[in-house]
Amino acid sequence: MFTKDLIENLSCGSLEEQLHKKIETIQKKDEEINSFITLCIEDAEKSSKIIQKKINDGSQGKLSGLIISIKDNIAVSNTRMTCGSKALENYIAPYDATIINSIKKEDGIIIGKCNMDEFACGSDGTSSYFGPTKNPRNIEYVSGGSSSGSAASVAADFADLSIGSDTGGSIRCPASFCGVYGMKPSYGLVSRYGVSDMAMSMEGPGPLAKDTYGIALLLDVIAGKDPRDTMTVDSNNSYLSVVENYKYEDIQNMKIAYAKEFFEGIDEKIKNIVLDKIGILESQGAKIEPVSLPSVKYVVPIYYLIAFSEFSSAMSKFDGFKYGYYITGQDIVEAVSNTRESSMGTEVKRRILLGTFITMEEFRDRWYTKALKARSAIKEDFERIFKTHDLLIGPTMPMLPPKIGERITDPPAMYSSDILTASANLAGICASSQPVGEIKGLPVGLQLHANSLCESKLLKGMRAVEIACGGM
Amino acid sequence: MVETIIDDKIIERVSDIARLKLSETEKEKFEEEFERILKEFSIIDEIKVGENELYYVVGNVNVLRKDSESKPFNNIKGIRDNFNRMEDEYIVVPKNL
To answer: Which one of A254, A257, A310, A458 has the fewest CB atoms closer than 10 angstroms to its CB?
Structure first.
Protein backbone atom coordinates (compact mmCIF):
# COMPACT_ATOMS: atom_id res chain seq x y z
CA MET A 1 0.00 0.00 0.00
CA PHE A 2 1.53 3.19 -1.26
CA THR A 3 0.62 5.63 1.53
CA LYS A 4 1.61 3.07 4.17
CA ASP A 5 5.08 2.73 2.60
CA LEU A 6 5.35 6.49 2.50
CA ILE A 7 4.75 6.73 6.25
CA GLU A 8 7.35 4.02 6.86
CA ASN A 9 9.87 5.89 4.71
CA LEU A 10 9.16 9.12 6.59
CA SER A 11 9.78 7.43 9.91
CA CYS A 12 13.32 6.47 8.90
CA GLY A 13 14.24 9.30 6.50
CA SER A 14 14.41 13.07 6.85
CA LEU A 15 11.11 14.92 6.83
CA GLU A 16 12.74 18.18 5.82
CA GLU A 17 14.31 16.50 2.82
CA GLN A 18 10.93 15.05 1.78
CA LEU A 19 9.29 18.44 2.15
CA HIS A 20 11.95 20.15 0.07
CA LYS A 21 11.58 17.57 -2.67
CA LYS A 22 7.86 18.36 -2.79
CA ILE A 23 8.48 22.12 -2.78
CA GLU A 24 10.96 21.73 -5.63
CA THR A 25 8.44 19.73 -7.69
CA ILE A 26 5.77 22.35 -7.00
CA GLN A 27 8.07 25.21 -8.03
CA LYS A 28 9.03 23.37 -11.19
CA LYS A 29 5.59 22.27 -12.31
CA ASP A 30 2.79 24.18 -10.64
CA GLU A 31 3.17 27.34 -12.66
CA GLU A 32 1.68 25.31 -15.48
CA ILE A 33 -0.77 23.07 -13.58
CA ASN A 34 -2.00 25.85 -11.27
CA SER A 35 -3.19 23.62 -8.45
CA PHE A 36 -2.29 26.05 -5.65
CA ILE A 37 -3.58 29.54 -4.95
CA THR A 38 -1.48 30.06 -1.81
CA LEU A 39 1.56 28.11 -0.62
CA CYS A 40 2.40 27.81 3.09
CA ILE A 41 6.10 27.01 2.74
CA GLU A 42 7.34 28.76 5.88
CA ASP A 43 4.69 27.22 8.13
CA ALA A 44 5.29 23.83 6.51
CA GLU A 45 9.02 24.05 7.21
CA LYS A 46 8.36 25.00 10.81
CA SER A 47 5.97 22.07 11.29
CA SER A 48 8.37 19.64 9.63
CA LYS A 49 11.06 20.47 12.21
CA ILE A 50 8.66 19.95 15.12
CA ILE A 51 7.24 16.72 13.68
CA GLN A 52 10.75 15.40 12.92
CA LYS A 53 11.58 15.66 16.62
CA LYS A 54 8.38 13.77 17.47
CA ILE A 55 9.24 11.04 14.94
CA ASN A 56 12.70 10.75 16.47
CA ASP A 57 11.24 10.01 19.89
CA GLY A 58 8.32 7.99 18.50
CA SER A 59 5.54 10.33 19.62
CA GLN A 60 4.23 11.44 16.21
CA GLY A 61 0.52 11.59 15.36
CA LYS A 62 -1.34 9.43 12.84
CA LEU A 63 -0.35 11.55 9.83
CA SER A 64 3.32 11.56 10.89
CA GLY A 65 4.56 14.28 8.56
CA LEU A 66 2.53 13.48 5.43
CA ILE A 67 2.17 16.52 3.20
CA ILE A 68 -1.40 17.70 2.78
CA SER A 69 -3.05 20.27 0.51
CA ILE A 70 -6.32 21.97 1.44
CA LYS A 71 -9.12 23.25 -0.79
CA ASP A 72 -9.28 27.02 -0.54
CA ASN A 73 -12.80 27.13 0.91
CA ILE A 74 -11.56 25.66 4.21
CA ALA A 75 -10.12 27.97 6.86
CA VAL A 76 -6.47 27.61 7.87
CA SER A 77 -5.62 30.11 10.58
CA ASN A 78 -3.69 33.25 9.49
CA THR A 79 -3.61 32.01 5.89
CA ARG A 80 -5.32 33.53 2.86
CA MET A 81 -8.63 31.85 1.97
CA THR A 82 -10.08 32.93 -1.38
CA CYS A 83 -12.73 30.34 -2.32
CA GLY A 84 -11.30 30.85 -5.83
CA SER A 85 -12.92 34.29 -5.99
CA LYS A 86 -11.91 37.91 -6.41
CA ALA A 87 -14.46 38.59 -3.66
CA LEU A 88 -12.08 37.02 -1.10
CA GLU A 89 -8.76 37.68 -2.81
CA ASN A 90 -7.26 39.26 0.33
CA TYR A 91 -9.23 37.54 3.07
CA ILE A 92 -7.09 36.07 5.85
CA ALA A 93 -8.86 33.37 7.87
CA PRO A 94 -8.68 34.20 11.60
CA TYR A 95 -9.17 30.60 12.80
CA ASP A 96 -8.70 26.94 11.88
CA ALA A 97 -11.58 24.82 10.62
CA THR A 98 -12.23 21.89 12.99
CA ILE A 99 -10.77 19.42 10.47
CA ILE A 100 -7.63 21.57 10.07
CA ASN A 101 -7.20 21.49 13.83
CA SER A 102 -7.44 17.70 13.73
CA ILE A 103 -4.94 17.46 10.85
CA LYS A 104 -2.45 19.67 12.72
CA LYS A 105 -2.94 17.67 15.92
CA GLU A 106 -2.18 14.44 14.09
CA ASP A 107 0.99 15.93 12.58
CA GLY A 108 -0.04 16.50 8.98
CA ILE A 109 2.00 19.20 7.21
CA ILE A 110 -0.19 21.72 5.38
CA ILE A 111 1.63 22.69 2.21
CA GLY A 112 -0.88 25.07 0.67
CA LYS A 113 -4.38 26.10 -0.32
CA CYS A 114 -5.75 24.62 -3.52
CA ASN A 115 -7.31 26.17 -6.56
CA MET A 116 -11.03 25.56 -7.03
CA ASP A 117 -14.00 26.63 -9.11
CA GLU A 118 -15.19 29.99 -7.79
CA PHE A 119 -17.21 29.34 -4.61
CA ALA A 120 -17.30 25.67 -5.68
CA CYS A 121 -19.60 26.55 -8.60
CA GLY A 122 -18.43 24.28 -11.37
CA SER A 123 -17.43 20.78 -12.24
CA ASP A 124 -14.39 21.32 -14.43
CA GLY A 125 -11.97 23.51 -12.45
CA THR A 126 -11.95 26.35 -14.97
CA SER A 127 -14.12 28.98 -13.25
CA SER A 128 -11.54 30.08 -10.64
CA TYR A 129 -10.62 33.77 -10.56
CA PHE A 130 -7.02 32.52 -10.32
CA GLY A 131 -7.19 30.68 -13.64
CA PRO A 132 -8.01 27.09 -14.58
CA THR A 133 -6.33 24.07 -12.97
CA LYS A 134 -4.82 21.86 -15.66
CA ASN A 135 -4.94 18.09 -15.56
CA PRO A 136 -1.51 16.73 -14.51
CA ARG A 137 -2.11 13.65 -16.64
CA ASN A 138 -2.35 15.83 -19.75
CA ILE A 139 -2.24 19.59 -19.35
CA GLU A 140 -4.41 20.20 -22.40
CA TYR A 141 -7.37 18.82 -20.43
CA VAL A 142 -9.42 20.12 -17.51
CA SER A 143 -8.76 18.70 -14.05
CA GLY A 144 -12.42 18.47 -13.07
CA GLY A 145 -13.91 20.37 -10.17
CA SER A 146 -14.77 21.98 -8.07
CA SER A 147 -11.94 20.56 -5.88
CA SER A 148 -9.64 20.92 -8.90
CA GLY A 149 -6.39 21.78 -7.14
CA SER A 150 -6.93 19.12 -4.47
CA ALA A 151 -7.08 16.31 -7.04
CA ALA A 152 -4.39 17.83 -9.27
CA SER A 153 -1.96 18.35 -6.37
CA VAL A 154 -2.23 14.67 -5.39
CA ALA A 155 -2.00 13.48 -9.03
CA ALA A 156 1.10 15.65 -9.63
CA ASP A 157 2.70 14.43 -6.37
CA PHE A 158 2.74 17.95 -4.89
CA ALA A 159 0.93 16.51 -1.85
CA ASP A 160 0.51 13.05 -0.32
CA LEU A 161 -3.09 13.67 0.70
CA SER A 162 -5.64 16.41 0.17
CA ILE A 163 -8.88 17.76 1.57
CA GLY A 164 -11.60 18.74 -0.85
CA SER A 165 -15.32 19.35 -0.45
CA ASP A 166 -18.21 17.69 -2.25
CA THR A 167 -21.65 19.20 -2.76
CA GLY A 168 -22.73 17.43 -5.96
CA GLY A 169 -19.58 15.55 -6.94
CA SER A 170 -16.83 18.10 -6.33
CA ILE A 171 -14.41 15.56 -4.82
CA ARG A 172 -15.32 12.59 -7.02
CA CYS A 173 -15.30 14.41 -10.37
CA PRO A 174 -11.73 15.79 -10.17
CA ALA A 175 -10.56 12.53 -8.54
CA SER A 176 -11.93 10.68 -11.57
CA PHE A 177 -10.48 13.11 -14.13
CA CYS A 178 -7.02 13.24 -12.49
CA GLY A 179 -6.81 9.53 -11.68
CA VAL A 180 -6.72 9.66 -7.87
CA TYR A 181 -8.88 8.33 -5.01
CA GLY A 182 -11.56 10.53 -3.49
CA MET A 183 -14.35 10.07 -0.99
CA LYS A 184 -17.46 12.05 -0.17
CA PRO A 185 -18.27 10.99 3.41
CA SER A 186 -21.87 10.69 4.62
CA TYR A 187 -23.54 13.96 5.54
CA GLY A 188 -22.83 14.56 9.22
CA LEU A 189 -19.71 12.39 9.53
CA VAL A 190 -17.20 15.23 9.03
CA SER A 191 -17.48 18.68 10.59
CA ARG A 192 -18.16 21.65 8.31
CA TYR A 193 -17.06 24.24 10.87
CA GLY A 194 -14.67 26.53 9.02
CA VAL A 195 -15.81 25.41 5.56
CA SER A 196 -17.28 28.26 3.53
CA ASP A 197 -20.79 27.00 2.82
CA MET A 198 -22.25 26.59 -0.63
CA ALA A 199 -25.29 24.35 -0.15
CA MET A 200 -25.61 23.58 3.54
CA SER A 201 -27.83 20.51 3.33
CA MET A 202 -25.62 18.65 0.85
CA GLU A 203 -21.98 19.61 1.22
CA GLY A 204 -19.13 18.36 3.32
CA PRO A 205 -15.36 18.04 3.26
CA GLY A 206 -13.64 14.76 2.44
CA PRO A 207 -10.28 13.13 1.66
CA LEU A 208 -8.35 12.62 -1.60
CA ALA A 209 -5.35 10.29 -1.78
CA LYS A 210 -3.34 7.94 -3.95
CA ASP A 211 -4.91 4.80 -2.49
CA THR A 212 -7.66 3.44 -0.23
CA TYR A 213 -5.24 3.39 2.71
CA GLY A 214 -4.68 7.15 2.37
CA ILE A 215 -8.42 7.81 2.22
CA ALA A 216 -9.08 5.75 5.36
CA LEU A 217 -6.16 7.31 7.23
CA LEU A 218 -7.31 10.88 6.56
CA LEU A 219 -10.96 9.99 7.24
CA ASP A 220 -9.98 8.63 10.67
CA VAL A 221 -8.41 12.01 11.45
CA ILE A 222 -11.28 14.25 10.28
CA ALA A 223 -14.41 12.22 11.12
CA GLY A 224 -16.51 12.58 14.23
CA LYS A 225 -18.74 14.73 16.36
CA ASP A 226 -17.97 18.43 16.59
CA PRO A 227 -19.97 20.61 18.98
CA ARG A 228 -19.50 23.45 16.46
CA ASP A 229 -21.42 21.59 13.74
CA THR A 230 -24.65 20.26 15.22
CA MET A 231 -25.25 18.02 12.19
CA THR A 232 -22.26 15.86 13.08
CA VAL A 233 -22.51 12.39 14.58
CA ASP A 234 -20.12 10.17 16.55
CA SER A 235 -17.62 8.05 14.68
CA ASN A 236 -15.59 5.10 15.90
CA ASN A 237 -12.65 6.32 13.77
CA SER A 238 -11.31 2.88 12.97
CA TYR A 239 -11.52 3.13 9.21
CA LEU A 240 -7.83 2.45 8.71
CA SER A 241 -8.10 -0.90 10.49
CA VAL A 242 -10.98 -1.83 8.14
CA VAL A 243 -8.60 -1.37 5.21
CA GLU A 244 -5.62 -2.98 6.93
CA ASN A 245 -7.62 -6.03 8.03
CA TYR A 246 -9.26 -6.51 4.64
CA LYS A 247 -8.73 -10.01 3.26
CA TYR A 248 -9.10 -11.12 -0.32
CA GLU A 249 -11.87 -13.56 0.68
CA ASP A 250 -13.97 -10.70 2.13
CA ILE A 251 -15.21 -9.99 -1.38
CA GLN A 252 -17.30 -13.16 -1.22
CA ASN A 253 -19.55 -11.55 1.37
CA MET A 254 -20.19 -8.43 -0.69
CA LYS A 255 -23.56 -7.84 -2.28
CA ILE A 256 -23.14 -5.19 -4.91
CA ALA A 257 -26.01 -3.55 -6.78
CA TYR A 258 -25.65 -2.43 -10.34
CA ALA A 259 -28.13 0.10 -11.79
CA LYS A 260 -28.46 0.12 -15.56
CA GLU A 261 -29.59 3.75 -15.42
CA PHE A 262 -26.02 4.66 -14.38
CA PHE A 263 -24.75 3.37 -17.72
CA GLU A 264 -27.27 4.99 -20.05
CA GLY A 265 -25.95 7.74 -22.30
CA ILE A 266 -22.39 7.56 -21.00
CA ASP A 267 -19.16 7.26 -23.02
CA GLU A 268 -19.01 3.71 -24.41
CA LYS A 269 -15.33 3.28 -23.53
CA ILE A 270 -15.91 4.31 -19.91
CA LYS A 271 -18.85 1.91 -19.76
CA ASN A 272 -16.71 -0.98 -21.02
CA ILE A 273 -13.88 -0.36 -18.56
CA VAL A 274 -16.27 -0.16 -15.58
CA LEU A 275 -18.22 -3.24 -16.72
CA ASP A 276 -14.94 -5.11 -17.09
CA LYS A 277 -14.03 -4.33 -13.46
CA ILE A 278 -17.50 -5.37 -12.29
CA GLY A 279 -16.88 -8.67 -14.12
CA ILE A 280 -13.59 -9.14 -12.26
CA LEU A 281 -15.27 -8.50 -8.89
CA GLU A 282 -17.94 -11.06 -9.80
CA SER A 283 -15.35 -13.64 -10.82
CA GLN A 284 -13.64 -13.10 -7.46
CA GLY A 285 -16.83 -13.99 -5.64
CA ALA A 286 -18.81 -10.76 -5.19
CA LYS A 287 -22.55 -11.08 -5.72
CA ILE A 288 -23.49 -8.57 -8.42
CA GLU A 289 -27.19 -7.95 -8.93
CA PRO A 290 -29.11 -5.56 -11.17
CA VAL A 291 -31.40 -3.04 -9.49
CA SER A 292 -33.49 -0.26 -10.92
CA LEU A 293 -32.93 3.39 -10.08
CA PRO A 294 -35.49 5.19 -12.23
CA SER A 295 -34.99 8.52 -10.45
CA VAL A 296 -31.51 9.06 -11.93
CA LYS A 297 -32.83 11.23 -14.76
CA TYR A 298 -34.36 13.66 -12.25
CA VAL A 299 -31.24 14.02 -10.14
CA VAL A 300 -29.73 17.02 -11.95
CA PRO A 301 -32.81 19.31 -11.76
CA ILE A 302 -33.60 18.32 -8.15
CA TYR A 303 -29.99 18.83 -7.10
CA TYR A 304 -29.56 22.17 -8.83
CA LEU A 305 -32.88 23.62 -7.68
CA ILE A 306 -31.91 22.92 -4.06
CA ALA A 307 -28.27 23.94 -4.60
CA PHE A 308 -29.25 27.29 -6.20
CA SER A 309 -31.64 28.09 -3.33
CA GLU A 310 -29.18 27.29 -0.57
CA PHE A 311 -26.34 28.98 -2.45
CA SER A 312 -28.18 32.28 -2.92
CA SER A 313 -28.83 32.34 0.80
CA ALA A 314 -25.22 31.39 1.70
CA MET A 315 -23.82 34.11 -0.56
CA SER A 316 -25.80 36.93 1.04
CA LYS A 317 -23.04 37.35 3.66
CA PHE A 318 -20.60 38.63 1.05
CA ASP A 319 -21.38 42.33 1.23
CA GLY A 320 -17.81 43.61 1.45
CA PHE A 321 -18.16 45.35 4.82
CA LYS A 322 -16.61 42.91 7.26
CA TYR A 323 -14.21 41.26 4.82
CA GLY A 324 -13.53 40.76 1.14
CA TYR A 325 -13.57 42.95 -1.93
CA TYR A 326 -15.43 46.23 -1.50
CA ILE A 327 -16.74 49.03 -3.68
CA THR A 328 -18.71 51.77 -2.04
CA GLY A 329 -21.96 53.37 -3.23
CA GLN A 330 -24.38 56.16 -2.37
CA ASP A 331 -26.17 53.99 0.16
CA ILE A 332 -25.81 50.52 1.65
CA VAL A 333 -27.90 48.77 -1.01
CA GLU A 334 -25.90 50.31 -3.85
CA ALA A 335 -22.59 49.52 -2.14
CA VAL A 336 -23.53 45.86 -1.71
CA SER A 337 -24.83 45.60 -5.31
CA ASN A 338 -21.69 47.23 -6.70
CA THR A 339 -19.40 45.07 -4.58
CA ARG A 340 -21.08 41.85 -5.67
CA GLU A 341 -21.31 42.91 -9.32
CA SER A 342 -17.61 43.56 -9.62
CA SER A 343 -16.23 40.71 -7.50
CA MET A 344 -18.17 37.64 -8.62
CA GLY A 345 -17.91 35.54 -11.78
CA THR A 346 -20.70 34.63 -14.20
CA GLU A 347 -21.53 31.18 -12.81
CA VAL A 348 -21.69 32.53 -9.26
CA LYS A 349 -24.04 35.33 -10.37
CA ARG A 350 -26.16 32.87 -12.36
CA ARG A 351 -26.64 30.65 -9.31
CA ILE A 352 -27.37 33.52 -6.92
CA LEU A 353 -30.02 34.91 -9.27
CA LEU A 354 -31.65 31.56 -10.03
CA GLY A 355 -31.68 30.68 -6.32
CA THR A 356 -33.25 34.03 -5.46
CA PHE A 357 -35.82 33.55 -8.22
CA ILE A 358 -36.99 30.05 -7.28
CA THR A 359 -37.35 30.94 -3.62
CA MET A 360 -39.45 34.06 -4.24
CA GLU A 361 -42.91 33.78 -2.72
CA GLU A 362 -44.76 33.29 -6.00
CA PHE A 363 -42.36 30.70 -7.45
CA ARG A 364 -41.29 28.83 -4.33
CA ASP A 365 -43.96 26.11 -4.43
CA ARG A 366 -43.46 25.56 -8.13
CA TRP A 367 -39.71 25.01 -7.87
CA TYR A 368 -38.05 24.88 -4.46
CA THR A 369 -40.74 23.05 -2.48
CA LYS A 370 -41.29 20.66 -5.36
CA ALA A 371 -37.57 19.83 -5.44
CA LEU A 372 -37.53 19.16 -1.69
CA LYS A 373 -40.42 16.73 -2.06
CA ALA A 374 -38.70 15.01 -4.98
CA ARG A 375 -35.57 14.75 -2.86
CA SER A 376 -37.48 12.43 -0.50
CA ALA A 377 -38.16 10.15 -3.46
CA ILE A 378 -34.44 9.92 -4.28
CA LYS A 379 -33.58 9.10 -0.70
CA GLU A 380 -36.23 6.38 -0.60
CA ASP A 381 -34.83 4.86 -3.82
CA PHE A 382 -31.40 4.49 -2.21
CA GLU A 383 -32.82 3.22 1.08
CA ARG A 384 -34.58 0.49 -0.88
CA ILE A 385 -31.34 -0.58 -2.57
CA PHE A 386 -29.28 -0.58 0.64
CA LYS A 387 -31.84 -2.76 2.44
CA THR A 388 -30.66 -5.66 0.32
CA HIS A 389 -27.21 -4.59 -0.92
CA ASP A 390 -23.95 -3.35 0.62
CA LEU A 391 -22.82 -1.21 -2.28
CA LEU A 392 -24.00 0.38 -5.51
CA ILE A 393 -21.43 0.38 -8.31
CA GLY A 394 -21.04 2.43 -11.50
CA PRO A 395 -18.90 5.01 -13.26
CA THR A 396 -18.10 8.37 -11.60
CA MET A 397 -18.37 10.59 -14.65
CA PRO A 398 -20.37 10.10 -17.84
CA MET A 399 -17.51 11.42 -19.99
CA LEU A 400 -13.74 11.84 -20.12
CA PRO A 401 -12.24 15.22 -19.15
CA PRO A 402 -12.83 17.73 -21.96
CA LYS A 403 -10.01 19.80 -23.45
CA ILE A 404 -9.62 23.17 -21.74
CA GLY A 405 -10.58 25.20 -24.80
CA GLU A 406 -13.44 22.89 -25.71
CA ARG A 407 -15.29 22.79 -22.43
CA ILE A 408 -19.03 23.15 -22.51
CA THR A 409 -20.23 26.58 -21.42
CA ASP A 410 -23.96 26.15 -21.98
CA PRO A 411 -25.40 25.91 -18.43
CA PRO A 412 -27.89 23.00 -18.84
CA ALA A 413 -25.26 20.89 -20.62
CA MET A 414 -22.65 21.83 -18.02
CA TYR A 415 -24.95 20.84 -15.14
CA SER A 416 -25.71 17.45 -16.72
CA SER A 417 -22.16 16.21 -16.02
CA ASP A 418 -23.14 15.84 -12.33
CA ILE A 419 -25.80 13.24 -13.15
CA LEU A 420 -23.97 10.26 -11.63
CA THR A 421 -22.58 12.00 -8.54
CA ALA A 422 -25.26 14.37 -7.20
CA SER A 423 -27.68 11.72 -5.94
CA ALA A 424 -25.28 10.78 -3.11
CA ASN A 425 -25.47 14.37 -1.87
CA LEU A 426 -29.25 14.50 -2.15
CA ALA A 427 -29.53 11.27 -0.15
CA GLY A 428 -26.73 12.14 2.32
CA ILE A 429 -24.99 8.80 1.75
CA CYS A 430 -21.26 8.16 1.21
CA ALA A 431 -19.62 7.60 -2.18
CA SER A 432 -16.14 7.27 -3.65
CA SER A 433 -14.23 7.47 -6.90
CA GLN A 434 -11.07 5.56 -7.76
CA PRO A 435 -9.02 5.08 -10.93
CA VAL A 436 -9.71 1.82 -12.76
CA GLY A 437 -8.23 2.39 -16.19
CA GLU A 438 -7.51 4.94 -18.85
CA ILE A 439 -8.44 5.91 -22.38
CA LYS A 440 -5.66 7.54 -24.41
CA GLY A 441 -3.87 8.52 -21.22
CA LEU A 442 -6.99 10.01 -19.59
CA PRO A 443 -8.09 8.32 -16.35
CA VAL A 444 -11.44 6.61 -15.83
CA GLY A 445 -13.03 6.60 -12.37
CA LEU A 446 -15.26 3.94 -10.81
CA GLN A 447 -17.82 5.07 -8.29
CA LEU A 448 -19.11 3.18 -5.28
CA HIS A 449 -22.01 4.24 -3.06
CA ALA A 450 -22.81 2.89 0.41
CA ASN A 451 -25.60 3.75 2.83
CA SER A 452 -25.37 6.69 5.21
CA LEU A 453 -22.59 6.19 7.80
CA CYS A 454 -21.55 2.88 6.19
CA GLU A 455 -18.04 4.16 5.36
CA SER A 456 -16.54 0.86 6.50
CA LYS A 457 -18.49 -0.99 3.81
CA LEU A 458 -17.50 1.64 1.26
CA LEU A 459 -13.81 1.31 2.16
CA LYS A 460 -13.98 -2.49 1.91
CA GLY A 461 -15.50 -2.09 -1.54
CA MET A 462 -12.80 0.43 -2.54
CA ARG A 463 -10.12 -1.96 -1.34
CA ALA A 464 -11.72 -4.84 -3.30
CA VAL A 465 -11.74 -2.73 -6.48
CA GLU A 466 -8.16 -1.60 -5.79
CA ILE A 467 -7.05 -5.24 -5.57
CA ALA A 468 -9.12 -6.17 -8.63
CA CYS A 469 -7.19 -3.51 -10.55
CA GLY A 470 -3.88 -5.00 -9.48
CA GLY A 471 -3.20 -2.61 -6.57
CA MET A 472 -1.04 -3.83 -3.71
CA MET B 1 -48.74 23.37 -13.77
CA VAL B 2 -48.51 27.12 -14.38
CA GLU B 3 -45.55 27.97 -16.57
CA THR B 4 -42.99 30.35 -15.21
CA ILE B 5 -42.53 33.36 -17.48
CA ILE B 6 -39.26 35.18 -17.26
CA ASP B 7 -39.22 38.73 -18.58
CA ASP B 8 -37.23 41.96 -18.08
CA LYS B 9 -39.29 42.94 -15.04
CA ILE B 10 -38.70 39.64 -13.26
CA ILE B 11 -34.95 39.78 -13.94
CA GLU B 12 -34.82 43.32 -12.56
CA ARG B 13 -36.75 42.32 -9.44
CA VAL B 14 -34.50 39.33 -8.86
CA SER B 15 -31.38 41.45 -9.34
CA ASP B 16 -32.76 43.92 -6.82
CA ILE B 17 -33.66 41.30 -4.19
CA ALA B 18 -30.32 39.51 -4.67
CA ARG B 19 -28.45 42.84 -4.28
CA LEU B 20 -26.56 42.11 -7.45
CA LYS B 21 -26.29 44.81 -10.10
CA LEU B 22 -26.46 43.51 -13.68
CA SER B 23 -25.40 45.09 -16.95
CA GLU B 24 -27.89 45.22 -19.84
CA THR B 25 -26.01 42.44 -21.63
CA GLU B 26 -26.09 40.26 -18.50
CA LYS B 27 -29.82 40.85 -18.10
CA GLU B 28 -30.49 39.66 -21.64
CA LYS B 29 -28.16 36.72 -21.34
CA PHE B 30 -29.61 35.51 -18.02
CA GLU B 31 -33.20 36.01 -19.19
CA GLU B 32 -32.62 33.71 -22.15
CA GLU B 33 -30.68 31.15 -20.11
CA PHE B 34 -33.08 31.00 -17.16
CA GLU B 35 -35.98 30.34 -19.51
CA ARG B 36 -34.07 27.40 -20.97
CA ILE B 37 -32.74 26.03 -17.68
CA LEU B 38 -36.14 26.05 -16.01
CA LYS B 39 -37.80 24.52 -19.08
CA GLU B 40 -35.34 21.67 -18.87
CA PHE B 41 -35.81 21.37 -15.10
CA SER B 42 -39.60 21.14 -15.41
CA ILE B 43 -39.03 17.40 -16.05
CA ILE B 44 -39.39 17.08 -12.25
CA ASP B 45 -43.15 17.44 -12.77
CA GLU B 46 -43.13 13.81 -13.91
CA ILE B 47 -42.15 12.57 -10.44
CA LYS B 48 -44.89 11.44 -8.14
CA VAL B 49 -44.09 13.18 -4.88
CA GLY B 50 -45.56 12.93 -1.42
CA GLU B 51 -45.98 15.80 1.02
CA ASN B 52 -42.67 15.28 2.78
CA GLU B 53 -40.24 18.16 2.11
CA LEU B 54 -36.76 16.84 2.79
CA TYR B 55 -34.54 19.65 4.09
CA TYR B 56 -32.02 17.57 5.99
CA VAL B 57 -30.92 14.00 5.56
CA VAL B 58 -29.83 13.32 9.13
CA GLY B 59 -32.03 12.65 12.11
CA ASN B 60 -30.33 15.04 14.56
CA VAL B 61 -32.91 17.12 16.39
CA ASN B 62 -32.59 19.62 19.21
CA VAL B 63 -28.84 19.33 19.53
CA LEU B 64 -28.00 21.38 22.61
CA ARG B 65 -24.68 22.46 23.98
CA LYS B 66 -23.73 22.24 27.64
CA ASP B 67 -25.14 25.08 29.69
CA SER B 68 -21.77 26.48 30.63
CA GLU B 69 -19.71 29.53 29.81
CA SER B 70 -18.23 29.12 26.34
CA LYS B 71 -14.61 29.83 25.57
CA PRO B 72 -14.32 33.31 24.03
CA PHE B 73 -12.79 33.66 20.57
CA ASN B 74 -9.37 35.20 21.07
CA ASN B 75 -8.21 36.32 17.63
CA ILE B 76 -10.17 39.59 17.49
CA LYS B 77 -7.28 41.25 15.66
CA GLY B 78 -7.54 38.60 12.94
CA ILE B 79 -11.20 39.48 12.41
CA ARG B 80 -10.54 43.22 12.51
CA ASP B 81 -7.67 43.02 10.02
CA ASN B 82 -10.16 41.95 7.35
CA PHE B 83 -12.39 45.02 7.78
CA ASN B 84 -12.32 47.24 4.73
CA ARG B 85 -12.97 50.63 6.30
CA MET B 86 -12.73 51.28 9.99
CA GLU B 87 -12.95 54.26 12.31
CA ASP B 88 -11.98 53.71 15.93
CA GLU B 89 -13.65 50.40 16.76
CA TYR B 90 -16.38 50.65 14.12
CA ILE B 91 -16.84 49.43 10.53
CA VAL B 92 -17.62 52.34 8.21
CA VAL B 93 -20.53 51.74 5.82
CA PRO B 94 -22.47 54.14 3.58
CA LYS B 95 -25.59 55.75 5.07
CA ASN B 96 -28.73 53.66 5.00
CA LEU B 97 -31.43 56.35 5.12
So the answer is: A254
The pLDDT, as a whole number, for residue A229 is: 94
**Dist. CA A445–CA A181, nearest whole Å:** 9
CA dist A322 and A132 (Å) reads 28
Cβ atoms of residues A252 and A220 within 8 Å: no
User: Which residues in chain B are closer than 8 Å to A354, comparing Cβ atoms?
Assistant: 34, 37
Q: Which of A69, A102, A143, A146 is catalytic?
A: A146
Q: In angstroms, rounded to a whole number, what is the distance separating the alpha carbons of residues A197 and A315? A: 8
Evaluate whether A231 touches B56 at the Cβ level (below 8 Å): yes
Q: Which candidate in A69, A85, A170, A295 is catalytic?
A: A170
**Best of A373, A378, A410, A418 to mutate (most B CBs within 10 Å, chain B):** A373
Domains of chain B: 8-46 (1.10.20)
The structural architecture, per CATH, of the domain A2-247+431-468 is Alpha-Beta Complex (3.90)
d(CA A250, CA A299): 33
Asked if A233 reaches chain B (Cβ–Cβ under 8 Å), the answer is yes
Amino acid at A299: V
A157 near B CB under 8 A = no
A248-261 burial, b if ≥16 CB within 10 A, otherwise e? Answer: eebbeebebbbbeb
CA A46 distance to own-chain centroid: 28
CA distance A469 to B8: 55
Q: Does the active-site annotation cover A417?
A: no
Global pTM reads 0.96
List CB contacts (< 8 A) between B36 and chain A.
411-412
